[in-house]
Write a structure and sequence with these properties.
The chain is an alpha/beta fold. The chain has helices spanning 38-44, 54-57, 61-77, 89-92, 97-109, 119-126, 142-155, 204-219, 222-236, 248-255; strands at residues 5-9, 18-22, 49-53, 80-84, 114-116, 161-171, 174-183, 186-189, 193-197. The protein is built from ten helices and nine strands.
Length: 264
């Protein structure tokens, strides 16, 4: 058994980042339905939230089946299901490509409470288009994203929250970065950080998801949740590597409008 690896070349200026996942024959890819006692985990232990997503679904046929088993058990036990679509073409190409990704993700989506993804994710995995968006997302029309999310929540009425990051890549080193989420029948938007300087963009989306979920579970406030998510994602992209090095205190300071002045 082996663990997966993800090799990443950081981008800079006009050279975009390049990621190469090495996940074949890993222990995670061989997980299958029946490997976990979900009723014990969700029912007896009382786990509040299950978070998974398209990367795990794309590891193998059995991992997709395992997710479906897990989300159905979570629904039965009243556990919140959070799902990050995270479309990665290199993972799906060996067993069905985008067509298979849509079949799998559309089935899982019926059991999701909190759906997260960017424009490419919602399009590739669920078939929803953002009107007027070009392939490079050189501009962001927030109203177009809101229309897309409105269509998604109408198609999947089980969604309690649907959220997307808003990223305009001006160069590998400088992005506009924001986020919106739909919850309780209304839209909430985080401040758009223009010309955010990027050290390493890997992990920005994951950190948005974790900040959003923290805000929903801890504060039960979708406005604060999307702000925490966007702030956490922004901070994660100022540090190297996938794992966030930002503390809750730093996230809260940025949400409140904190600056980059030295702290002593």
């Amino acid at each position: 058994m082996r663990n997966g690896l993800n090799f990443t070349e950081r981008g800079f200026s006009l050279r975009g980042a390049i990621g190469i996942p090495d996940r074949g024959h890993t222990a995670a890819s061989q997980l299958k339905p029946g490997d976990f006692d979900w009723d014990y985990i969700f029912g007896k232990l009382g786990v509040r939230c299950l978070h998974t997503g398209g990367i795990f679904a794309g590891l193998s046929d059995t991992t997709a089946q395992l997710i479906l088993e897990a989300v159905q058990a979570a629904r039965k036990n009243g556990t919140i299901v959070s799902y990050d679509l995270n479309y990665r073409p290199s993972l799906w190409k060996s067993f069905g490509g985008q067509k298979k990704a849509q079949v799998v993700n559309k089935e899982i989506a019926h059991y999701v409470d909190v759906m997260i993804g960017n424009e490419e994710d919602f399009t590739a995995c669920l078939g929803f288009e953002v009107e007027g968006a070009d392939e490079h997302l050189s501009t962001i029309d927030v109203s177009a994203f809101k229309n897309m999310i409105a269509t998604a929540v109408k198609t999947y009425p089980n969604f309690k929250v649907a959220a997307t990051t808003l990223r305009v890549v001006k160069s590998a080193s400088r992005n506009d970065w924001g986020a919106i989420c739909w919850a309780q029948g209304a839209f909430f938007e985080a401040p758009n950080r223009k010309d955010l300087e990027i050290l390493d963009r890997v992990g920005g989306g994951d950190s948005f998801a974790s900040g959003l979920i923290y805000g929903l579970l801890t504060l039960n406030d979708p406005k604060k949740a999307v702000e925490y998510g966007a702030a956490h994602g922004a901070l994660a992209m100022t540090t190297p590597g996938d794992a966030s090095m930002a503390s809750l205190k730093e996230v809260e300071a940025l949400v409140k409008g904190g600056s980059a002045r030295v702290q002593r």
